[in-house]
Amino acid sequence: NVVPTPVKIHLINMLSETGLQVIEATSFVSPKWVPQMADHTEVMQGISKVPGISYPVLTPNLKGFQAAVAAGAQEVSIFGAASELFTKKNINCTIEESLERFDEVMTAARGANIPVRGYVSCVLGCPYEGKISPAKVAEVSKKMYSMGCYEISLGDTIGIGTPGSMKEMLTAVMKEVPAGALAVHCHDTYGQALANILVALQMGVSVVDASVAGLGGCPYAQGASGNVATEDLVYMLNGLGIQTGVDLQKLMDTGTFICNALNRRTNSKVSQACCRL
Amino acid sequence: MGTVPSALKHCLSYQHLLKEQLWIGEPAAPPPAVPHPGQESDASGLPEYIKIVEVGPRDGLQNEKVIVPTDTKIELINRLSKTGLPVIEVTGFVSSKWVPQMADHKEVMMGIEQHPGVRYPVLTPNLQGFHSAVAAGATEVSVFGAASEMFSKMNINCSIEESIERFEEVAKSARNMNIPVRGYVSCALGCPYEGNVIPAKVAEVSKRLYSMGCYEISLGDTIGVGTPGSMKRMLEAVMKEIPLSALAVHCHDTYGQALANILTAIQMGVAVVDSSVAGLGGCPYAKGATGNVATEDVIYMLNGLGINTGVNLYKVMEAGNFICTALNKTTNSKVALASFNTGAIN
To answer: Which GO biological process annotations does it have (chain B) (predicted)?
Structure first.
């Protein structure tokens, strides 16, 4: 179900009040493929941009990059993958070809002084190829980092990873990319996300992606969950005495807002427990 | 993240995917005849073998609203007996007035198939319950203490000290009959009434239970509020009083922290983990919230860490599917949810 533009804008504005420092706002992709993001320009121009908060947007190619900049974007993201089959199915080209496309974006971004974040999908497993070698993840990460991405977010796209495979993969990647430039993007499809994140933190990673209310299912397993819930992550980090700057109550309120708007239950266990929903 | 492909039908089935990655599959080797948890660890510092204590039929069902027919309980336990689980908590010899779900404790105890190599402990809150349990064929029992005075008062209407005295009676009789006793400490990481619980108190109660003869102390995060931070602090205090090999963790997933907390515990050398098939058992203190961590999700994680449990994950998922169908509810196991919805398991 396509979410109305004003709801998206309100969601982002509420998130901007929670203390979060980076909020991925939208995606400048073709509305034919991703109808949910068709209103990217309106969203980008409609949100209240709070100083000190970064609002990156996804830009799969140069065209998207240019549209994003025209709409006021000041940071962009590009999505690579550690799996050839996934890249083929997802964006209909090889990993090498996708990196060439990104190179165009990198050049333009450099020219406009716009930071670029690189994502690597399928780092712990691929829905088409199955097992993914840590060396492959390291290779793709290194390429994207060398191209000029300031940060590489390693995504367990199907949530299949465990602390064992997370450790193995990070060990390989950290040989090529400094820990300070790494982030983890864990899915909770198999309930492993927080344990995987804990291992990443223990290995020195200090950037973690998450989604309020655990929004976003898994397109590869019907009915299964996807993104890890920001509330549950913040709860764990608070318990570990790790600073995030995020106000958990405000975050939960934001989650309540979007779940009501979407007429769905939250995927955050913290929210479920606290709100007795 | 990225575009949504429409080529879902070209995905590998999850059965293929997971078998290949060895997260689900036959256990690597049979567990040692006399495992020494805590004494053997691999290069990563984690135990090589972890004993899973399945509490679904007791702790799980006790916290489910629907009263389950005796036959269904027996069928569940019989299925669990075939999965490789080494310990299955069968029922509770408690007053049926307080816990109607466990009213059929005798029938269940006498009706199950007792597989060689599998242990079937039962809850016995007092001497009367203990005698009934033994009469019904129980060969192992558990007692439940708490690290919180208020919880003890609200739950069993007496102080911690009074409850310990009751358990000592049970422990004494059990000792005479050569029956092992497991001790639980509730509210190890927080109490629904008192809030914060200090690690020293958990250590003190654990020590009392251990000294009276409990062979193992299961530390329970009863309301699931713990995090890796509080788990670590609590275990550090308890480990000063109780040997590592006698410790277990019983984590609830009410705040989604269970697996992270269990990981922390096993990184510290704990090698016994309680869990509940399909994550049976809600939380009586937070309406609609979840309770026990799902056995399937724990085993998935341990398999991924290369830790042996002796348990066949597929068979546990099938047992979980059975009881969820009987209860007409969705599983609380994310592994089961993901696997079933890709048509991998029927």
So the answer is: ketone body biosynthetic process; L-leucine catabolic process
Secondary structure (H, E, C), A2-15: CCCHHHHHHHHHHH
Q: Which chain A residues are Cβ-neighbours of B254 within 8 angstroms?
A: 269, 273
Residue ranges and CATH numbers for the domains of chain B are 51-340 (3.20.20.70)
Number of domains in chain A: 1
Instruction: Kindly report the nearest CA distance between residue A212 and chain B, in angstroms.
Output: 14
In a domain? residue A93 = yes
Residue A277 lies in a domain: no
Q: Would the CB atoms of A269 and B226 count as touching at under 8 Å?
A: no
CA distance to A55, A191, B230, per residue, from B248 (Å): 45, 21, 16
Q: What is the pLDDT of residues A51-108, one digit of tens each?
A: 999 999 999 999 999 999 999 999 999 999 999 999 999 888 999 999 999 999 999 9
Q: Do the beta carbons of residue B241 and residue B210 sit within 8 Å?
A: yes
CA distance A159 to chain B (A): 10
In a domain, A201, yes or no: yes
Average pLDDT, chain A: 95
Q: How many angstroms separate the CA atoms of B297 and B278, rounded?
A: 9
Domain that holds residue A208: 5-272
**Contact with chain B for residue A191, Cβ under 8 A:** yes
Task: Name the residue among B254, B306, B334 with its Cβ closest to that of A164.
Answer: B306
The pLDDT, as a whole number, for residue B340 is 75
Inter-chain CB proximity A218 and B17 less than 8 Å: no
Residue in B closest to A80 by C-alpha: B2
Task: Report whether A24 contacts A40 (CB < 8 A).
Answer: no
CATH of the domain at A54: 3.20.20.70
**Contact flag B228-A34 (C-beta cutoff 8 Å):** no
Chain B residues touching A188 at Cβ < 8 A: 334
- What totals of helices (H) and strands (E) does chain B contain, helices first? 13, 8
User: Does the beta carbon of A185 lie under 8 angstroms from any beta carbon of chain B?
Assistant: yes
**What average pLDDT does the segment B232-253 reach?**
98
The Cα–Cα gap between A86 and A127 comes to 8
Angle at A123 between CA B256 and CA A38, to 5 degrees: 80
Alpha helices in A210-268 (DSSP H): 230-239, 248-262
ipTM associated with this complex: 0.94
